[in-house]
Amino acid sequence: MRNYDICIIGGGASGLAAAASLSSHFHTVLLEKNGILGRKIMATGGGRCNITNTACAHCDLTLDFFKSLGMELYHDAEGRYYPYSNQARDVARVLEEAALEKGTEVVLDCGVTKIQKKVDHFQIFSGKRSFSAKKVILAVGGKAAPSLGTTGDGYGLARSMGHETTTIYPILTGIECGDLQKIKGVRARGTVRLFIEDRLLAEETGEIQFTEDGISGICVMNLTMHITAEKGASVRESLQRYHLELDLAPDFSEKELLHRKSSFGILSYALSQIVSLEDIKAWRLPVRGVKGWKSAQCTAGGIRLDEIDMQTMESRIVPGFYLVGEILDVQGKCGGFNLQNAWETGIRAAQHLNEILL
Fold first, then answer.
1. 110: CATH
2. pTM over 0.90, yes/no
């Protein structure tokens, strides 16, 4: 068993941000269950990595962090920041290089199965291997996109340390609405409104993508944050209360549509065969479900925030134990908000450790 000052569990966005921000004076080890670091980072933003957004409260923290690593960023008209190279792999690489420059020892193919708190250190187990560290940063992500390694292992580890989780469910994914096979692959610009019974919960405008059993696209995925099962009710019972209304002519008023004979000409021919002119401003679709963990971009729910000092990311239950990134009950819409949470919480944990250990 090797002894370290700090053990970071998880080599994704929050774990790498922490490693890159820690002092090189520490003896740090980073344990990653995958065979490479930053695997999920490489898949974000359509392979471009939407790093943060001008609308994020602490966007400047992230911008300064990446600038300090030598990575230039740019933002688009909607405030989304990307690496200047437009390559998500470059983001993972610059973080890995920064961590290694700090002297971080990286152990790959090392999934953690158990953490034990001792009197003056933590013992971390991975199969037959074990590691000892004075401080632990748990940065294993949530449960979304299990093909990239985020399979929800961290919740069990956190619970074993005395933490509680709120209800966990997949978000930022497509919505199932029934058989739409005839318009599979069709895209249209529109406004999507989510209702629970007759009450409007949220609406988003953007490109809507029709699939064989529902709809997708950023504007649709953002709405999944509002679809939840009520306490004590089954998922099926809860979903029956939701429905969608699609305005597929958001740039046209009702008056402007009066002279038209059909929806064709605004909509594609295929879509116009399904959506009449009468329905074009409020096409109603049921919510049959949301796509599962496999296609979700983010996890809703997680470790209760009242159990964490959100300024330092240290556990209020177990001193010396830090929790960062998607494992927390923090979630945002598409556009860099969730990666902002990952960078920000990882950096905060590292800054606190730099202050108390040096």
1. 3.50.50.60
2. yes
